[in-house]
Amino acid sequence: MHPFAYFEPKTLDETIALLSQHGRAADLMAGGTDLLVEIKEHIRRPAAVINLKTIPGLAELACDAATGLRIGALVTVRTIETSPAVQRLYPALAGAAREIGSIQIRNRATVVGNVCRASPSADTLPPLIAFGAHVEMVGPAGTRSLPLEAFFTGPGKTALGADEVVTAIVLPPPAAQAGSDYIKHGRRRAMELATVGVAVSLRRDGDVCRDLRIVLGAVAPTPIRARAAEALLEGVAPDEATVAAAGRAARDEARPISNVRASADYRRAMVAVLTRRAVAAAWERTGREIQP
Amino acid sequence: MTTATVPVTITINGEPRELGVAPSRTLLDVLRNEAGLTGTKKGCDVGDCGACTVLLDDVPVNSCLVLAVEANGRRVTTIEGIAPDPDRLHPLQENFMALGASQCGFCTPGIIVMAKALLDRNPNPTEEEIRFGLAGNICRCTGYTKIVEAIQVTARQMAADAGKPA
Known about the structure:
Chain A: Keywords: FAD, Flavoprotein, Oxidoreductase. The structure holds 2 protein chains of 2 kinds. In chain A, 33% of the residues lie in helices and 25% in strands.
């Protein structure tokens, strides 16, 4: 790897000062599983690497039915995958975590790193957006929070300032009778990037579906909400015909590209199928079947 | 801190080692070149193949994606440190030999280290759990069948041995 200055700040204030000093020439490192690969492959040549792992408190995970989920900047993907509380309360997120890389990678990679890397195919982004996540940031002007949906501005691009640090991702508590699911579609089962990813979060109100969020990954420059599909199911008792119609609506909202992993047409076709399946799985987690 | 060499102390296979490392050096390169432990292999060097798997404080990681400076003050276990004593191999090592679970051998150290981590966490894994656990360890020779079998046999032997009086 090309040489870089290396820093182990002990506080966020120290980190922000380093960022202000080095600007875009510095890269923050959490797990390092993307950053070090990009340095090795000459995609990035940072003059400075700032390791966040020496800052106390950033590795904290809090997950509770009353207060929701708070994922500190250093919480690993493996911690999310194996947390019984996350598995129970946010099953689509625990499931997406399980789909990333290998155990060795997940032991190092962080959820916040996955968010800041802003890959259109990143597996944790659709479920986090479906659960209504916010991003907490700190910079020279203090702290701020953004809905995760508004955080992504393009492939690899976010609203994070050059002198800001993401400190946590925060999710609201799950609603009563909530259901969620994430389905990843790839060319093989392991060590793969998503060709298409679909996350669904909803709650059951009697016999009808409420507060639906359908989020599509790897079919646009950023993860996107399929709002027309959501609207078709809002306040509806879902049956096979309405769920299939929502799948077709989501397909029409996708804006995929063709690349080495799949053609745009194939991705669109898969959005319809996976949306239908993810809505059905999320609904079934609320204790009901989809009516024929 | 700068790009200059920094002193670190890493406990490698139980032995504290004082080394000087540049911040851009990976744990993998330092293990192989500075510590002289060439059992850990360098395959892809980008976290895809698992040949460089080591335990960092008992947690399996790709040593090609860990900076050596990050291992300062921590424990690293490599394939050279898996055996219980110098005269005996680990049961995984014995069974990989006995069952022919190694052909060219390049992936074997990483797979045995990963398998040890899996059995430490789950002493009685199903075939599916073994295959899921080894997703990040690529073998291009064997087709994995004998690797899975060697791990299953080891799990059964270790369970039987644990039930015996000492």
